[in-house]
Amino acid sequence: MLLVGNAACWATGPLYQTDYQISQHPIVVVATWDRAAVREHHLIAGNVCKEPEAFTELNVLRVLRGDLQPGKHQLMFGWGVAWNADGSGLATWTSTDIPGDVDDITRPSLWFLDRKRSWDAADPLEYLHIPHYRAVQPLALEPYFQALLTPDRDRAVIALLQAGDPLIVRRALRYACGEIWPWPFGPREGDELAYDRPRERERLLAEAAPAVGRVIDSTLEELRPLAVAVYAELVKTERQPRLRALLADRNPTVRGVAIGLLTRDKDAASLTAMATAVAGVDDASVACRIIDAVTAWDEPRAVPLLIPFLENDRSAYRYGDDWGIPALKARAALHALTGCWFPYRVSAAADAWSQVADLADRPQQKRRLAELLPDPEFPVTAELVGTARPASSQPAPTTEPTRVQSALRAGMYLPADDALVTVRLRNVIGHPITIRRFPSAVNLQWPGGLHDYAAGPQPSEETNADFTDLTPGEVIEFEIALYSSFLRAEPDRRMLRLEYARFPPTCEEHCWIGMLSVEFGALWKEERKFAWVEECWPNGNLRARGQTLNGDRFGEWHFFNEAGDRIRIVDYSGGHAETVCNPAHSDNKRAGRRPATATQTTGP
Fold first, then answer.
1. Helix 346-354 / helix 362-372 crossing angle, nearest 10 deg
2. Exposed e or buried b per residue across 492-514, where buried means at least 16 C-beta atoms within 10 angstroms of its C-beta
3. Burial of 132 (0-12, 13-18, 19+ CB in 10 A)
4. Distance of CA 291 to CAs 11, 184, 288, 296, 347, Å?
5. Domain map of the chain by residue range?
6. Residue 407 CB coordination number (10 Å)
7. Cα 340 from Cα 376, distance rounded (Å)
8. Are strands 467-470 and 433-436 parallel, antiparallel or unpaired?
9. Residue 355 CA, distance from chain mean position
10. Phi, psi (5° rounding) for residue 483?
11. What is the 8-class DSSP label of residue 7?
């Protein structure tokens, strides 16, 4: 591990540099790092690393630009550039850890360098210096970076769109759209993080549109969806004819991008063609963007665009409670459009919609659909029953232990500070429901923290045996692990949810996924015994005071020095948040002073 400085000390990463910015460094070579020794030479002041730097050796094979000869050269690198001892893992290695573009720097790569002297004035040498984590690029991109160095770089890059090498064509596409991928591959609305791209889009090359169009017509299947998005961005006002033609494309992701863009254009004339084209669009990220576009349109006639996603449980992303699973998002979008909760079954959902689609009166359509689809959002409920038990204790028996529960008992999924509790799951609708015997993950939120942990087998290991059919009113019980600090939190400030993220391998008629809240109901028992505690110094002045819950510190505690002056406040119910107090302030001075005869007391 070649880490300059302490990565944990840095709260962010270096600003992004575009390909063109990278190309402007004064020295460009083809080189390898041959696992040479690394010498650290940091400027340390007290306990603070003021100037991190390290030295190693670079083996220059060819010089493309710059005044140096092939051979071994000393190389300096500093904050924001690091890699593993075997040459892998090139990245920033900051707390916002941003990967570089080369997987193995022991293989010949393009290095974009400058020269720099050490912070140490006693060192007279000027070293080759790697200035950025993106300053090492794949050797296959040499024609692309040569194009960036030509006087007419725009024309040179546009010509590379016909290069045939997917890596080069991909970079040329990104250059043409200003270094930020357009919708649906670009940043989500409201996403202000820019660590992996420029903060602002650079120039759009409208003159590249014909060449981008030829990429769409090519056999580079993995790039054709990107090319559609770039083309649509370059020809914004004239894109609909081409997008409509792509609704019959052979590539389902190309069709999906066209559907999403036409939906954003509110192209009602293409709804029938889009409803046909959406079949087979299974890319989870593109599907989620289509669903978002349909939701924003608020057009009931677009319901057929959502129904095919109801059985797609692939996960594209997770941003807070925005869970990028097409089935979940499609069901929520259908509810927003119709007021009804559709089943996670394409055939059943399509059949119900076919019976109301021709009703022109929207309220009448909703009433009829509610008769066909009476199920609520949550067909099951979950509640804690019994009491919490230390993880080391014998778990209470469950109705039908699975290998997941056996793993839980063995400690595979337990948090470090843990307790076992029993969850009772009940079917509350009028027909059977298929659901996982154990949730995909457990989600905890309380003032002291936020924690998710995966539970159960991996998707590739799941079988139908990991699922069960619950008849109306039937219950199952299983155990989950909770942090003890979660259980100590104030009841109205803690939230426990179970994630059910996947369908069974063989999808049943009535299966369910979603995020299910767990209630602390009448069958849940927990002791919450509070006591007021004052701890004193030998001279009788207060040392600390606050409450305990079941013997553990809870809530706000005040701490004092031996003179009785308040020096800090710690909130043990809110993540041990600590406030340092000025003992000389009038509010703190003598706040804990007691008569000399006072002794340590504990009271209710």
1. 140
2. eebebbbbbbbbbeeebebbbbb
3. buried
4. 35, 11, 5, 9, 19
5. 7-144, 239-372, 380-519, 530-603
6. 16
7. 8
8. antiparallel
9. 39
10. -65, 140
11. G
Give the separation between CA 439 and CA 466, rounded to whole angstroms. 10
- Residues with Cβ within 8 Å of residue 305, at least 6 apart in sequence: 259, 263, 271, 274, 275, 278, 290, 294
Q: What pLDDT is stored for residue 343 in this prediction?
A: 95
Which ranges of 70-119 does DSSP label H, i.e. alpha helix? none
The residues of the chain scoring below 50 in pLDDT are 1-11, 394-412, 597-604
pLDDT digits 0-9 by tens, 177-231: 999 999 999 887 766 566 778 888 889 999 999 999 999 999 999 999 999 999 9
Question: What distance in Å separates the CA atoms of residue 595 and residue 412, rounded to the nearest whole number?
Answer: 53
Strands (E), 355-417: 380-390
DSSP 30: E
Calculate the CA 509 to chain-centre distance.
31
Cα separation, 179 vs 197, whole angstroms: 7
CB atoms within 10 A of CB 252: 17
Which pLDDT value is given to residue 389? Answer: 87
Beta bridge partners of 72: 59
Q: How far is CA 42 from CA 77, 87, 119, 416, in A?
A: 11, 22, 9, 36
Q: Which amino acid is residue 218, in one-letter code?
A: S
d(CA 285, CA 290): 9
Q: How many residues does the chain have?
A: 604
**Residue reference for tokens 């509110």:** 266
Helix and strand numbers (H, E) in the chain are: 16, 26
**The tokens of 356 are what?**
């109301």
Q: What angle do CA 529, 531, 532 make, to 5 degrees?
A: 160
CA distances from 562 to 135, 569, 587, 589, 599 (A): 57, 16, 17, 12, 14
Q: Helices marked H in 202-321 — which ranges?
A: 209-216, 224-234, 240-245, 252-264, 271-277, 284-297, 303-306
pLDDT of residue 603: 42
Burial of 439 by CB count in 10 Å (0-12 exposed, 13-18 middle, 19+ buried)? Answer: buried
Q: How many C-beta atoms lie closer than 10 Å to residue 47's C-beta?
A: 7
With b meaning 16 or more CB within 10 Å and e meaning fewer, what string describes 72-108?
ebebbbbbbbbbeeebebbbbbbeeebebbbeebeee
Looking at domain 380-519, which CATH architecture does it have?
A: Sandwich (2.60)
What pLDDT is stored for residue 392 in this prediction? Answer: 60
Residue 512 per-residue DSSP state? -
Q: Tell me what pLDDT residue 4 has.
A: 43
Show Cβ contacts of residue 152 under 8 Å, excluding neighbours closer than 6 positions: none
The reported pLDDT for the residue numbered 507 is 66
Closest to 166 (Cα-Cα) out of 208, 202, 138: 138
Nearest CA to 220 out of 143, 161, 152 is that of 161
Instruction: Using DSSP, state whether 272 is helix, strand or coil.
Output: helix
Instruction: Give the integer Cα–Cα distance in Å for 442 and 496.
Output: 8
CATH architecture of residue range(s) 7-144: Beta Barrel (2.40)
Q: Tokens 């359509």 appear where?
A: 365
